Amino acid sequence: MNGHYYSKQPDASHDRQQWRAMLRGMNFQFVSDAGVFSKGGVDYGSRVLIDSMDIPVRAQVLDVGCGYGPIGLTAARLAQQGCVKMVDVNERALQLAQENAAQNGIHNVTVQESDGLAALAGERFDVILTNPPIRAGKEVVHRIFEQSYEQLNEQGALWIVIQKKQGAPSAEAKLHTLFGEENVELVTKDKGYRVYRATKR
């Protein structure tokens, strides 16, 4: 059964939808489909992360688990002189992310299949963003944190959004172990969602 949004090839019947969203004061038009995360609109957690994230204009950015693209495409508009790599394990999501980049006129992005950061060996980033696939399990989520630490540039930052009741305490503890407690900041709390920024020093 490949019904999960973190499956490589979801078997859900296609159900394409299109809608507009305002993110960070910018208009976007998105196409989504069955078998991808939050197909009916940009989910609240992603919105909390998008509203909080600090993206330098020249940053090299990675969006892990990009889905159809709202986080990464917003980052790309903020990093006007940088570039954004968007990765996901879900082939349907990657196709949608490509389509959404094109229809929003966003050209400083590349979309690539990767399970976490596994396909990105040797690449380095200034900012890594993730609304991690909680339903895939803690081991998968914590592996994304570990890989992110290894592939951040010095002074680079990992931004995550996670629900308090879906693993925020263990996620925070894992970030403390990797980055050092003094380098992990709880940026915001909103309706049970928490956004953390972990800086590599």
From TrEMBL:
It holds the Pfam family MTS. GO terms for biological process: methylation. It comes from the Bacteria. SUPFAM superfamilies: S-adenosyl-L-methionine-dependent methyltransferases. This is Class I SAM-dependent methyltransferase. PANTHER family: RIBOSOMAL RNA SMALL SUBUNIT METHYLTRANSFERASE C (PTHR47816). Keywords: Methyltransferase, Transferase. The keyword Protein biosynthesis does not apply. The lineage of its organism: Bacteria, Bacillati, Bacillota, Bacilli, Bacillales. Residues 28-197 form the Methyltransferase small domain. One of its GO terms (molecular function) is methyltransferase activity.
